[in-house]
Every structure is written in structure tokens, then in C-alpha cells.
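Each letter names a residue; the fold follows as C-alpha cells. Both lines appear below:
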Amino acid sequence: MAMSPAHGEDSPYFAGWRAYDEDPYDPIANPRGVIQMGLAENQVSFDLLEEYLKEHPEVSDCSAGFRENAMFQDYHGLKSFRKAMASFMETIRGGKVRFDPDRIVLTAGATAANELLTCILANPGDALLVPTPYYPGFDRDLRWRTGVSIVPVRCDSTAGFQVTAGALQDAYDAAVAARTRVRGVVITNPSNPLGTTAERPALDGVLNFVARNDMHLISDEIYSGSVFAAPDLEKFNCES
């Protein structure tokens, strides 16, 4: 296993979490405590899910298929689940693209997927370019157990934080000057933490950059199903 000198929670983001855990705000008992503003959890559908599960207990009750599910399964994930996932991704993309369930690999969440991809695409000591501002959990997900480093790509507010070819090249050149091999670019679209969507010229620039430098692209689109005001959201629908 790759080892990293950094701890999995060695970042300002997790330092804030620790401060909150140690001194949480309370309007009466602790009015000068820490307010947690670094996390947004979607809990508005809990009541709908609870009601559905009460009416359809078979969905969460594995007793009917326990023997089958308790045996070794396809390492890519249950076929039925992959079919459902393909259908879901087609739906949230407006039916503009088809997904082959046989080309989908399921993991236990996006964190596991990002860490797994990093282990596959890069070796300890390599780096990934990540446009800023980026999801602070990447400092843990991409670095901690992989031995891979993150090279921030500076995105300016004057350009709406859209990643540019110049910024990618500057970050790449700095990594090369430090004798660090860059294995790919990681983007999040829609953005976490900004909530903005990438414009087509920016995505074209990223694609051209990775192709020109013979590296990989990881497109994290975990929030693509939560876009309501951008019907023209550009998404990567990789066929290979």
C-alpha cells in the first residue's frame, strides 16, 4: 500500500471540523462556539424516503434474496444495480446519451471511486492537477493513502473561476520544474464548492490539454442531478 506523510484529515477543512466537534455553537449553552459552515447535506428528501421504505419494505429487506447476495458477486457491481444506474444517468442527461451497464463499475461511494482511480492512474510521487477552489475532501481522498500529490490550478474570479488553458499549463510547468510527473486532471462539474457549471470552451480546453500531454481526465459529476437553472450544462459522456 502506498504511504503518505500527510494524515487523511490534515487540511484546514478538517481542522475546522475538529474545532466544531470540540466547541460546537449553541444559541443558549455556547453562543460563542464554532458554527459549522463547511458542509451541506441534502436532507430535504428524508421524509419522502422514509415514507417510501415504510410502504415498500422489500426494497431494504434482503431476506428474499439473501442467499444470492451473500455469495461472491460480479466485481463490477450487481447487474441489476448497474442497469438502474445507467438508466438514471441517461435520465438526468435528458436522454441525449446512452450508457452501457457492462461498462459501469460501482464503488461504495464517490470517495472510494476517486481514491481507486487515483491508485490506478498514478503512482506514489506523481501528481494530479486540480482547478481551484476544489472540494476540500480531495486533500484526503486523492492524497492520503495513495502517495499522490495535488497541484492546484489557479482559477480567477474575474473569469468566473472557469479553468483556462493558460492556468493548466502554468500548473503543469511548475510540476515539471519540480520533477513531479503529472498523470491527469481532476475536475468537478458542477463545481463543489461554487455550485457553478463549466462552460463549453473551458471543457474543450481541458480535453485539448489532456490529449496534448497524453494524460488522464477524471470528471467528477456527482452533482449533475442537482442542476436546475442550467439546462445547457455541459457534461462529459465518455465512451471509452
User: Anything to note?
Assistant: The mean pLDDT is 88. The CA atoms of residues 38 and 62 lie 36 Å apart. Strands lie at 127-131, 149-153, 182-188, 216-220. The two ends are 28 Å apart (CA to CA).
